[in-house]
Amino acid sequence: MTFEILYEDGKARVGKLYTEHGPVITPFFMPVASKGSVKAMEGADIDILGFESIISNSFILSLSPGIDVVEGAGGIHKFMHFKKNIFTDSGGFQVLSKDFLIKKTDEGALFKDQSGKKMIYTPEIAMKNQIRLGSDVAMTLDDVAHYGLSGKEYVDAIRRTHDWARRSIIAHKELKKEYDSKQLLFGIAQGGTREEYRRFSTHKINEMDFDGVALGGLVIGESRGELMGAIAESVKHFDDHKVRYLMGLGSPPDVVRAVGEGVDCFDSIYPTSNARHGSMLTRKGRFMIKKVAYKNDHGPIEEGCKCETCKNYSRAYLHHLLRTHELLGYKLATIHNLHFMNNLIHELRDAIKKGRYKEYAEDFLKDYFSGKEAKEFSNNVQQKYMEKLRKEQAKIFLDWKGE
RNA sequence: GCCUCCGUAGCUUAGUGGUAGAGUGAUCGGCUGUUAACCGAUUGGUCGUCGGUUCAAUCCCGACCGGGGGCG
User: Fold this and answer.
1) Which of residues 123-162 of A touch strand B (CB under 7 A)?
2) A220 C-beta less than 7 Å away from strand B
3) Angle A52-A57-A59 from CA coordinates, rounded to 5°
4) For residue A111, what are the β-bridge partners?
5) Which of A1, A115, A319, A401 is deepest in the core (most CB within 10 A)?
6) For residues A243 and A17, what is the distance between their CA atoms, to the nearest angstrom?
7) DSSP string, A131-192
8) In tens digits, what is the pLDDT along chain A, a chain of 403 residues?
9) A292 CA, B26 C1': separation in Å?
């Protein structure tokens, strides 16, 4: 057994995922360490913050420093000095990146590196890289379709994802024997936000022999309603006893809602990226510490927060550090935001155990969107559309003025 | 005192005889399986002052003011 459910409250659940580096209680959130480092933090810092797993990226590590180097170091745990669980992503998400992708074929993704050097990245290569890195959980190579594309592109992505999933399982079984590895393998479902695609892909991935299942291709520009709909639809078609991983989701309110839908596991750059850019997470929403309003604010980032940053430093200090690009600023800000996420996860687990997830979520969401500084996040696509519209309008106005 | 170079956005500066761009700063916003200490928007200038030439001067000429360098 790789996963057991300990408590249930509605669709939400608390469980235990068994891995080589020790069991992990679900729900859990993973900070992202694509290049083998949670930016600005060392392994020990992440451990102290209480995270039991992080996720790195095998494709990005294969570019630099190369799989050989990490393998030679004795595996990714030793290389980056993190003693708990490490997931590795396959590189599937990088098919969305214009900087990497040349084209997709049935064989695999044709990628290029910084120098323009081409390489074919197949499911088999993705499996081998992840086994050699020695991560606890490997992800299959999947084919992610951009949000808002036509049906054909979604169908192609689903078809390839399923085909690559089957090939991944075969390759992974052999590699596990060859390398005497206990690595787990998670499959990823696609399908975007259309119900029938989502259902179909989830169903197929669920049928296959994976140690865990993931919801892929989400949080890439769809509206919050579409996102939540896709999550609810997916969860229905995954077996209850399988651990469910929603890839890429990480804003606090989204995590709270997704846990309520029965998702067990998350990863996102959200807290770390926002931290470095000066956006601090609090119960009353986010606020931007670099704003002039905090120049002379000698209180902690968040009143009552027990993180090392809030215990020892002021908003004014962080404001100063981040404005002057002092390296310590990135670390202190990251400590706070990651602490916030881990604390949130612990509270969610606690609420589920006590059968009061619903009340907890209601209170949390109310608070989060209540603060003067807080507001619902605008969604990407809508915002980009509005920006484009504004520019077009401005141009029309200028042309008209030029008459 | 003489010679010389230079004064353009808060700062560093580009530029042209048809009233000016950039970087940076400032203000605000965005980041959700990160090659991102990043990206975007906004703000910001009687082009040192006063005259002259010209249809038109930030640009050419003169004086003055301020600054750098050199010679005495």
Assistant:
1) 139, 142, 144
2) yes
3) 160
4) A101, A119
5) A319
6) 7
7) HHHT-SEEE----PPPTT--HHHHHHHHHHHHHHHHHHHHHHHHHHHHHT---EEEEEE--T
8) 899 999 999 999 999 999 999 999 999 999 999 999 999 999 999 999 999 999 999 999 999 999 999 999 999 999 999 999 999 999 999 999 999 999 999 999 999 998 889 999 999 999 999 999 999 999 999 999 999 888 888 999 999 999 999 999 999 999 999 999 999 999 999 999 999 999 999 999 999 999 999 999 999 999 999 999 999 999 999 999 999 999 999 999 999 999 999 999 999 999 999 999 999 999 999 999 999 999 999 999 999 999 999 999 999 999 999 999 999 999 999 999 999 999 999 999 999 999 999 999 999 999 999 864 334 333 343 444 444 444 444 433 333 333 2
9) 10
Nucleotides of B under 7 A from a protein CB: 26-40
Question: A51 CA, B71 C1': separation in Å?
Answer: 73
Round and report the angstrom distance from CA (A398) to C1' (B59).
29
Contact, A377 CB vs strand B, < 7 Å: yes
Q: Show Cβ contacts of residue A348 under 8 Å, excluding neighbours closer than 6 positions.
A: A12, A27, A255, A256, A259, A357, A360
Q: Is the CB of A35 under 7 A from strand B?
A: yes
* A263-283 core/surface letters (b: 16 or more CB in 10 A; e: else): bbbbbbbbbbebbbebbbbbb
The dihedral over CA atoms of A95, A61, A279, A282, expressed in degrees to the nearest 10, equals 100
Classify A28 as helix, strand or coil.
strand
Residue A37 tokens, joined: 């480092």
Instruction: Please state the φ and ψ torsions of residue A364, each to the nearest 5 degrees.
Output: -60, -50
Active site residues of A: 89, 267
Cβ atoms A18, A3 nearer than 8 A: yes
Give residue numbers, 334 to 373 of A, with CB < 7 Å from strand B.
none
Which nucleotide lies at the shortest CA–C1' distance from A143?
Answer: B33
The ranges assigned to domains in chain A are 3-268, 279-368
- Domain A3-268 - what CATH class? alpha beta
Interatomic separation, CA of residue A332 and C1' of nucleotide B59, rounded (Å): 52
Paired strand residues for A352: none
CA A325 to C1' B24, in angstroms, rounded, equals 14
Q: What is the DSSP letter of A269?
A: S
